[in-house]
Amino acid sequence: MGQYFAKRLLYLFGVLIVVSVITFFIMHQVPGGPFSREKQLSPTALANLNAKYHLDDPLYKQYLDYMIDLLIPTITTGEKTFSVTDNYLINFDIPGSEDTAFRWINFGPSYRSQTRSVNDIIREQLPVSAKLGAASLLIAMVIGIPLGTMAALKKNTVYDYFSMSTAILGVSVPVIILGPLLKYILAVELGWLPTQGWGEFKHLVMPAFALGFAQSALLARLTRASLLQVLNEDYIRTARAKGLRQRQVVIVHAMKNAMIPVATVIGPLFAALITGTFVTERVFGIPGMGSYFVTSIQNRDYSVIMGTTLVFAFFIVIANFIVDLTYAWLDPRIRLS
Amino acid sequence: MSATQISEQPSTASSHVLHLGKQLADTTTRSPWIDALRRLRRNRAAIVGLIVIVVNVIAAIFAPMIAPHHYETQNILAMNSAPQWVTDVFPKMVPTGETGGYIRVNNDYILGTDSLGRDLLSRIIYGARISLSVAFVGPFFSLLVGTVFGMIAGYTGGRVDNLMMRFVDIMYAFPTLLLVILLMAFFRASFTAGDEGSIAYRLNKIDSAFGGMLFIFIGIGLTSWMDTARLARAQVLSIRQQEYIDAAISIGARDTTIIFRHVLPNILGPIVVAESMAIPRYISFEAFLSFIGLGVNPPTPSWGSMIADGSNALISFPNQAIFPALALFFVMFAFNFLGDGLRDALDPRSNKA
What we know:
The structure holds two protein chains of two kinds. Chain A is mostly helical. In chain A, about 70% of the residues lie in helices and about 5% in strands. In chain A, strands 1-3-2 form a three-stranded antiparallel sheet. Chain A starts with a helix and ends with a helix. Chain B is built from 14 helices and two strands; from the N terminus they run ααααβαβααααααααα. At the A-B interface, helix 1, helix 5, helix 6, helix 7 and helix 10 of A face helix 1, helix 7, helix 8, helix 12 and helix 13 of B.
């Protein structure tokens, strides 16, 4: 297990490196730069700006500098100077010595906003997006798994048709449709929930539901199929034969195995939720990271593009990693092969 | 799975015995395709889906004749207007003349106009062109890349297979949608900047001829071929064990002959079914890209970009976002129903899981 763990971790780190290389070189291929505006800067000013941010260095050097700033932890002595370029996500003082600090993860300055670094954006906007993503994942599971279980247990009854119709409805209304519809009905027409804003629980309800509902439909379908298969197994018949109650058979014996395929889709599901936040945040006016990702691409704000892409990629990769581990833990054949 | 069950349930219980004798008599003359077609016809939900799709296809093809206006035509005197019935349906849209009224009532436009004074209905009709081309061409790209990749891997086997499937694994872990968004931005930006004669320039020429859709197709191809590749490989592996492949090898058939004459026709069925189930995903993918401004080039109307424009003014002019959202919803729904029905019809076993 330990070796498997290490191998997967190394592999996923490799994926992240590939993502960073591809993103870096593609974004520098896009014509224009962070300082090209409608009203053009004078050539001298442009040259000075490029020199200040080392944008006139060769590309490979820029990439290496960026990755070194990002990945290599540094120990600084002396006073903490939080200029734009000296801003680390992880800072803590090393006890014992005066003014010595451990600094790690520097995503660099934002070229567009002079006062905020990419770290500031991540520090303030990431928790917002993460909260939205976590809430919708929760909603997807809370709706999807019971719905699928009910459908499987009461196969070919009204309950089954009801939950599977809900599932078809769910996959037909991605957040891009459900978002504006919900917002109009619940917020504008009925006035039950606020149309915009962020910070309180009531702001979270609608966006999380809009984002999570489509995924809950996928989970419901998968749970139904997987549970139906498990319920046909011999050991379920054995469990029934020895006189266990239905609830015990389902919860203790069937669900445990039926959840294996369901657990494996949590990874892709998480990726879908992350990209879904781009739309959700825009429809509901949520100050998350999605809008920064999209606008930074339009602005050629290189370090923001890199920062947001890597953060999103990091979470997707971590989700995949957790899924791999769960899978290997649930099914020993995988880690042994 | 649910769709068939809903419609089939009553009939199978009551008339099963009656059917039995008749079915036995004509089984000899029926091909599996006719059988599948029959099963599909019995599935009312799938037929409704099919009708919705056909209506949309007709609307998309004959858009210039059906649409009352051109999608670009602006009427500055009728910006953000709505007809009488829309103001009745949406009670918060108060027409001018009443207290607090702000909606210009204009009954010339059946669904109202957008903030630039363009007819919403016409834009929705033209928008069907985008969604439906994605629905039909998107699977083609994914099918092409995935099937070729999977077949090569499965047929060659050994180290090549191992390497190719490892690549698929990496692509699975790779956040492809982020990459596609970046690529779209790259293509869009090089649109004006490419040098004459360069590859980027030529691609952009083709793209602008398509109204900005070529890159959406490429994006779909890039993100969604992996599932198809895995499925194709698994199918090829099982087909390779069959005797008729051995027979073909023994009479000295070339690899390409075996692949295209003997393997491909036999693996296509399941792949096409899987692909048809994925169509709604492609449609929402295009809507998503257009929503965040990386889809079709304006002023070409896409339902995604119309929803994006409309949701900026959702409180004052809900019709501008809700009508395109409903259009998108009906098409997604139709494709989901049809996909489900097709799967049940072509693979009856899946229903008995």
